[in-house]
Amino acid sequence: MRSKYSKHKQANINILHPMKTQNYSNHSRLVAGWHGLTFFAILSFWIGSFVNLAHAEGPALYSASLLNVAGFIFVCFFVFVRMFALKAQDRAIRAEENLRHFALTGKLLPSGLGIGQIVALRFAADEEFAALAVKAAEENLTGKQIKQSIHNWKADTYRV
Q: What are the tens digits of pLDDT across the range 51-65?
């Protein structure tokens, strides 16, 4: 049974990311506030700090240098925050898909599957999931090839 909080959270996700029918051609998504606004704000800050450093003289050189360091820290923050979130999502997806495969077949996912393959398999409907997992492991399919092989797409509206 879901709590009232999980229903509210799900509703917010669907409102923020409305999507008609998810498929291979439209399954990836960018968040304008993060991938657009935040990225360009940080990039502008860092470029501006280099311009400021180029024109700085005397005592202003120290503060201009600190702005460059701050810009570098912001860029690192932007990259690592996203990487850490994706790594956590990948771990959750690996566990979910392993459980799903076990529920469908009584066995864990093939050990030869990498995380990119498992992440791609999450879009496969139950009817084709187990067979596609075996095929992906045997033929060493890429995530893109796995997604293109899916006939009955199962939407994942939670990953950003």
A: 999 998 888 899 999
Q: Scanning the structure block, which residue is given the tokens 């599957």?
A: 113
Q: Say how many C-beta atoms besides its own lie within 10 A of residue 71's C-beta.
A: 21
Q: Tell me how many domains the chain contains.
A: 1
Under a CB-based contact definition with an 8 Å cutoff, are residues 119 and 90 in contact? yes
Neighbours of 160 (CB within 10 A): 15
Convert the pLDDT of each residue in 24-43 to its tens digit. 655 666 667 777 789 999 99
Q: How many residues does the chain have?
A: 160
Residue 36 maps to a domain: yes
Q: Is the entire prediction scored with pTM above 0.90?
A: no
Helix, strand, coil proportions of the chain in percent (round to 5)?
70, 0, 30
- The per-residue pLDDT for range 129-140, each reduced to its tens digit, is 999 999 999 999
- Considering the domain boundaries, does residue 15 fall inside one? no
CA–CA distances in Å: residue 17 to residues 28, 151, 159: 11, 23, 10
Domain of residue 32 covers: 27-149
The DSSP result for 41-98, as a single string, is HHHHHHHHHHHHHHH--TTHHHHHHHHHHHHHHHHHHHHHHHHHHHHHHHHHHHHHHH
